[in-house]
Amino acid sequence: MGILMILFTFIGGLTLSAQSAVNGTFGRKAGTIETTLLTFITGTMFLAILILFFGNGNLLAILEVPKWQLSAVFLGVLFLLFIIAAVPKIGVIATNITVIIGQLVIGILIDNFGWFNSLVVPLDSKRYVALLFMIIALYFIYKGNKRTSEEDAS
Fold first, then answer.
1. What are the TM regions of this chain, as residue ranges (predicted)?
2. CA 86, CA 61: separation in Å to the nearest integer?
């Protein structure tokens, strides 16, 4: 099952990058907020069909969860808005590397402090080094993107 989850996560990463590229291009024409709205409306319809045929949870449990957990909905909307705005300006790879760095930073904090009932994993030098390498990767990718866009402009 572990290999299958890694494969699903890998495919999720592929779809995230493809969605970022398509939404970034679409957002230039239709607008960032409009593209985000269309994405969520379409996603809602798609998920409603999936729930209809394959759902086995309790949709009304939404009313029973602690209210702070509903913030995940707004965080998802903000994430998509930021992605759609960033891709046309800095490119897909720079956007995704920046997303990963953001995920690492908040993940390190969540693990270190045990927020949201997570496993406590203390911050150590290996995590600092991993984060540093990601920031270095972002620097080189972003500089490469700028150089390419300057060459295209001339």
1. 36-56, 68-87, 93-116, 128-145
2. 35
pLDDT in tens, 6-64: 898 889 888 988 999 999 999 999 999 999 999 999 999 999 999 999 998 888 888 89
Continuous H helices in 62-124:
71-90, 92-113
Report how far apart, in Å, the C-alpha atoms of 154 and of each of 51, 143, 144, 150 are: 52, 17, 16, 7
Q: How many helices (H) and strands (E) does the chain have?
A: 5, 0
| Token reading at 109 | 């904090």
| pLDDT > 70? residue 76 | yes
DSSP 65: S
Report which of 14, 39, 5 is spatially closest to residue 24, judged by C-alpha positions: 39
Nearest CA to 46 out of 13, 17, 74, 19 is that of: 19
- What predicted TM-score, i.e. pTM, was given to this entire model? 0.77
- Interacting residues of 143 by C-beta distance below 8 A, sequence separation 6+: none
CB 45 within 8 A of CB 97: no
Token pair for 61: 């449990």
